[in-house]
Design goal:
Order of helices and strands: EHEHEHEHHEHE
Strand content: 15-25%
Strand order of the largest sheet: 3-2-4-5-1-6
Shape: globular
Distance between the termini: 31 Å
Radius of gyration: 16 Å
Number of strands: 6
Helix content: 25-40%
């Protein structure tokens, strides 16, 4: 089997959203990024709300060709009731990075991980995200993840997948498992 990635044919970039309270939003989006890498497309991921930690996704991304990423957030858990000025600063830096990368013309696929959550928690203004989506170049495939996708973004998107939690191991007291859940 040939290990050289095939080059994907030119495509019109769409807007995808992975949202909902179920597990797997980031995983689904990363699957698209991984597929793009396999076809020789260049991808960039902006991680909102997630600081540097020993996550398996970061280790894997370093091994795949044509994928760059930037991480903005603290390494411990944060929630809407526990935001700090640093969280606001990280989210604004991530949004600025997203704008720069999307308009650069260098990337075919741009994934904005947890941007929906960042706007729902008022760390960034959803109107700025709406403008970002509206101004993306035609060629760029844009993927937005996170719970609480704003209705205005859902209307603009070409594809919206809502992951619904029906049952979760946490409900039985099973902690997150390294290599499976993070």
């Amino acid at each position: 089997m040939n290990d050289t990635p095939q080059t994907a044919k030119y495509h019109t970039g769409l807007v995808q959203i992975f949202t909902g309270d179920g597990r797997g939003k980031t995983s689904a989006a990363l699957g698209t990024v991984m597929r793009a890498s396999g076809y020789g497309l260049k991808a960039y991921i902006v991680f909102f709300l997630k600081g540097l930690h020993e996550g398996g996704e970061y280790k894997s991304l370093k091994r795949l060709p044509g994928i760059d990423y930037a991480i903005f957030g603290r390494s411990d858990f944060m929630g809407p009731q526990h935001t700090t000025q640093a969280d606001l600063d990280y989210a604004r830096q991530a949004l600025a990075e997203a704008k720069k990368v999307i308009s650069s013309g260098e990337y075919d696929v741009v994934m904005l991980d947890e941007i929906n959550t960042a706007s729902a928690w008022n760390l960034i203004n959803v109107e700025d995200v709406v403008e970002l989506v509206k101004s993306k170049p035609e060629k760029v495939e844009l993927i937005l993840t996170g719970r609480h996708a704003d209705t205005r973004l859902v209307v603009l998107a070409d594809q919206v997948t809502e992951l619904v939690n029906r049952k979760h191991p946490f409900e039985k007291g099973v902690d997150a498992r390294q290599g499976i859940d993070y």
